[in-house]
Amino acid sequence: MVRFLHTADWQIGMKAAHAGEKAKVVRQKRFDAASRIVELAEEKDVDFVILAGDTFEDHNVGDVAVKRTVDILNRLGPTPVYVLPGNHDPMVPGGIWDRDSWKRIDPHVTLLREQQEYRHSDDVALYACPLAQKQSSLDPTARIPRREDGDNRIRIGVAHGSLNILPDHVNFPIAADRPEQSGLDYLALGDWHSRGIYGRAVYPGTMEPTSFSEKDSGNVLIVEIEEAHAEPQIEVCPVNSLTWVGITPEISTVDDVEMLDRTIRDLGPLASVLLKISPDISGCTDSRALQRLETLREEVRESAFFLEWIDPVHQPVISGGADRIPDGILYEVDEALATILDGRIPEGPGHQFADQDPEVVLAARLLLHRLAGVRSA
Fold this sequence. Notes:
6-stranded mixed beta sheet
């Protein structure tokens, strides 16, 4: 029987620019989560730890961040730790793995430099698939050998990439049936920041959320495998400090605003919550509702760790006929805004705004419609 901790996508050194003035705190929280992983590994008495890629955001991460990461990994000793280079921190000459700051790592940490079998014990073998570049259309797990007859060891693959279960082109595509093809008892994956269990192919997700689009992130996994061919038993363990929540409410009346207020309050204390609220007010004609919404916005801004408020989320569309903006300067401005939203550069003075955030342009266009008294579809 083996018990190990599976984590990935620490992304140490990420800029977190989308968190504005809170970016420095967001970066610090990643070290806090990593420290909790150390405590959890000791509490759960794991045999080893797998870090399945993207330990660092890129090769330009500062030495201070690398040293702090090394210090945390060294605290895991003597428990073995297996670290895989991912697509953000691939195994390249002169990269982050060649830094003097990384070379302070203790012997219990093994950097999985080669595509090969790493023997953890007589009963457990790891098959590492390190990445040596940022992008590829090749399956990094394709060279994992099949299980030979009579091989009763627990076989664990360690890889970084995207299971080919998506309709779109993916970077480092991994065969969804790789565990079956190669006779793996578990395929420890990194790359997807959302937790996902696809049979024996498993993503733990990032240990500290990084965006509003992630689902079930902020965890690590404790995995137990009784013997070869046995079903892995997976325990999900939260380690995150911050919670990222996106809400897209439709606002037409004051009651809608009160419902949004209750939704936010149900989140609990907001001091550790990053909120992205994108109210759809395209159908709102009630000035009281808009005023209450603005008050709520200020209330949330006072209490939330971070608030990104996007208003509105739907592009206004001119209906035509009597609802059309009359010819003149407002019509010309509206045409320029519509051109920018269509991904083109308008002629005339409007071209200087072509590089503005589409959400800003969208909000400006809806406000213009209200100013002109035009209904938006």
